[in-house]
Amino acid sequence: MASPKVAVVGAGVIGLSTALCITETCPGCSVTVLSDQFSPNTTSDVAAGMLIPHTYPDTPIHRQKQWFKETFTYLFAISNSAEASEAGIHLVSGWQVFKSTPKEELPFWSDIVLGFRAMSEAELLKFPQHRFGQAFTTLKCDCPPYLLWLEKRLKAAGTQMYTRKVTDLWELHSEYDIIVNCTGMGAQQLVGDKQLFPVRGQVLKVHAPWVKQFIRDGDGLTYIYPGIHRVTLGGTREKGNWSLSPDAGTTRDIFDRCCSLEPSLQGAQDIEVKVGLRPSRQCVRVQREVLSQGGVKLPVVHNYGHGAGGFSMHRGTANEAAHLVGECISALQGSSSTAKL
Amino acid sequence: MRVAVIGAGVIGLSSALCIHEQFHGLVPSLELEVYADRFTPHTTSDGAAGLWQPYLSDHGNLQETLWNKETFDYLLGHLHSPAAKEMGLFLISGYNLFTEPVPDPPWKNIVLGFRNLTPKELELFPGYSYGWFNTALMLEGRSYLPWLTNRLMQRGVKFFHKKVESFQEVSGDGVDVVLNCSGMRAGDLQPDPELQPGRGQIIKVLAPWVKHFIITHDLKSGIYNSPYVIPGSEFTVLGGIYQHGNWSEENSAKDHKFVWDSCCRLLPPLQKAKIVGEWSGLRPARPSVRLERESIRLGNLQAEVIHNYGHGGFGITIHWGCALAAARLFGSILQEKQRLATPPGPRL
């Protein structure tokens, strides 16, 4: 087949990074990104973009570690280059604090982030309600800059991008040879995945430029993540809540919780409230599938269900999905040569 | 009782505040006056980035290490107070980089989380093979000096914009004690060949993605002669100049090039940073801080002078410890003048 036509559905961090990986691994492909939303209106734009992994219960740990390591290594190189500010990638140090000592004191990612160690007694004095903590340095991907940077790289690689709402993958079968499904929460409707559920997160984005360090409560509910221009204060984890409207009571609660970790936030200005639905699943679906309808076959590669770990795992899952696209192409080329016989 | 403070940098203002806090209740007649030719934002303290970090070695001067510690602990105690933002006070972490292993500094247990850099971290800084990571404090002069000024004004301390040419000028007319915090220009009031300028030049840039301080060290060139990057709350400071004996406060193109090129080499993302300013200042360098009493005879009168100057490139780092020491000297002067039966407060 001359030039396989690949459609990537979805333009959040997963869709764009997967599309970029495909252009890198299959230079002969023509890649098109289709999405009803682009930055700054994707779920990714709401997220802080911190590289602190979420553990998926049903994905083997070694696979999660591989995904995280590939993502961290990729971003680490960009963070120290002249492109860093445009890409919105920067190092940030800080603390994860726990009210009671966690069962697992060494998370699987502790040797991938930088300088991971237990907090000292002196450091814990700053958090009188917390008894244990971890200090480390990790990376942050600020959005929209990161998504816009991915879009720019895609355009340079000849990728077309169109605003289009895809309601059925079969809509695309006449125009494209392979579909890559990076629709995040949209996969629930698009492919009828009932294992996918929203976990609603509300965050505040504030102006507090003196906050240079991140602080995260180990329960995952309260966090302070300083970005390039704004600090993200969070948050909530509301399983099954589909509402995208900010809740005023929640805003007050998030602000109070963050101020108790970092009192200087009382002076924060320009508070902006945002809501996103983490596309959550027991395991990330990175998988090949061949759909069949009336004798017509449609190869699909799925890459969705990253929940709270989209940024942390994006490049690793994108690499894997691109590899699966390569397998689809080989299969198509194999069958087309068979058909010629 | 009248006290004249000469100098309105971090040393003058903090010593004044410390003395007023400790003694105004005990000496109702206490009147403080601050005299300076430069006030914030035109003092040396305003140009400094504001990072709390002493030099690598105290050369056996344990007194100075103690003053540094007192300052750090004092500031750490204020970190959670509502005043912190107004003071320009916040936590910051960062890197000290070397081309060879060095002994740990005397302040390793004062800062938080001091540790050596891991090999992976050193990959970020080609050319450097050893280093430290720790969490310290920023105290931005542009905010701290106005905060100190407001506290002093609330206490009724008066300010006079005047270049003081001699101790006589302020000590006549009922002034009992002179607090000499004149920094670089102390030599104009009383010759001091040990006080020399340590000229610095910095470039201010907008680089809000930089969240860590990075200080490199070249043991052969000496302190601050190697690039450093210090992110503040409004802009990031790039530096790396220390010229002993150079009195010029003019920006030099050659120094600009050195700072810019070496900082961009150290941190490539800085190539995209926007330059928003440049500044040169004179660190009031001295082999040790001059913090002592002196009785000066001026005609028929005797004035007590408390000298508190010569803090080099660590004025902000050491200021509160020195202010406390100056206050103790003040207390002993009061005792001698029998204004007080016993000295106030615990002695360190």
UniProtKB/TrEMBL annotation, chain A:
Its EC number is 1.4.3.1. It is an enzyme of class 1 (oxidoreductase). Residues 1-19 form the signal peptide. FAD binds at T43, S44, V166, T183. Residues 5-324 form the FAD dependent oxidoreductase domain. The keyword Ribosomal protein does not apply. GO terms for biological process: D-amino acid catabolic process; L-aspartate catabolic process. Its cofactor is FAD. The keyword Signal applies. Its main location: cytoplasm. It holds the Pfam family DAO. InterPro entries: D-amino_acid_oxidase_CS, DAO, FAD-dep_OxRdtase. It is found in: Cytoplasm, Cytosol; Peroxisome matrix. One of its GO terms (molecular function) is FAD binding. It comes from the Eukaryota. D-dopa binds at Y223, R278. One of its GO terms (cellular component) is cytosol. Keywords: Cytoplasm, FAD, Flavoprotein, Oxidoreductase, Peroxisome, Signal. It catalyses: D-aspartate + O2 + H2O = oxaloacetate + H2O2 + NH4(+); D-glutamate + O2 + H2O = 2-oxoglutarate + H2O2 + NH4(+). Belongs to the DAMOX/DASOX family. Selectively catalyzes the oxidative deamination of acidic amino acids. Suppresses the level of D-aspartate in the brain, an amino acid that can act as an agonist for glutamate receptors. Protects the organism from the toxicity of D-amino acids. May also function in the intestine. This is D-aspartate oxidase. The lineage of its organism: Eukaryota, Metazoa, Chordata, Craniata, Vertebrata.
From TrEMBL, chain B:
Its cofactor is FAD. It is an enzyme of class 1 (oxidoreductase). GO terms for biological process: D-alanine catabolic process; D-serine catabolic process; L-proline catabolic process. It comes from the Eukaryota. Its EC number is 1.4.3.3. It holds the Pfam family DAO. It is found in: Cytoplasm, Cytosol; Peroxisome matrix; Presynaptic active zone; Secreted. Keywords: Cell projection, Cytoplasm, FAD, Flavoprotein, Oxidoreductase, Peroxisome, Phosphoprotein, S-nitrosylation, Secreted, Synapse. Residues 2-329 form the FAD dependent oxidoreductase domain. InterPro entries: D-amino_acid_oxidase_CS, DAO, FAD-dep_OxRdtase. Its main location: cytoplasm. FAD binds at D37, R38, T44, S45, A49, G50, L51, V164, G312, G313, F314, G315, I316, T317. It catalyses: D-cysteine + O2 + H2O = 2-oxo-3-sulfanylpropanoate + H2O2 + NH4(+); D-tryptophan + O2 + H2O = indole-3-pyruvate + H2O2 + NH4(+); D-serine + O2 + H2O = 3-hydroxypyruvate + H2O2 + NH4(+); D-valine + O2 + H2O = 3-methyl-2-oxobutanoate + H2O2 + NH4(+). D-serine binds at Y228, R283, G313. GO terms for cellular component: cytosol; extracellular region; peroxisomal matrix; presynaptic active zone. D-dopa binds at Q53, H217. PANTHER family: D-AMINO ACID OXIDASE (PTHR11530), D-AMINO-ACID OXIDASE (PTHR11530:SF15). Belongs to the DAMOX/DASOX family. This is D-amino-acid oxidase. It comes from Sylvietta virens. The gene is Dao.
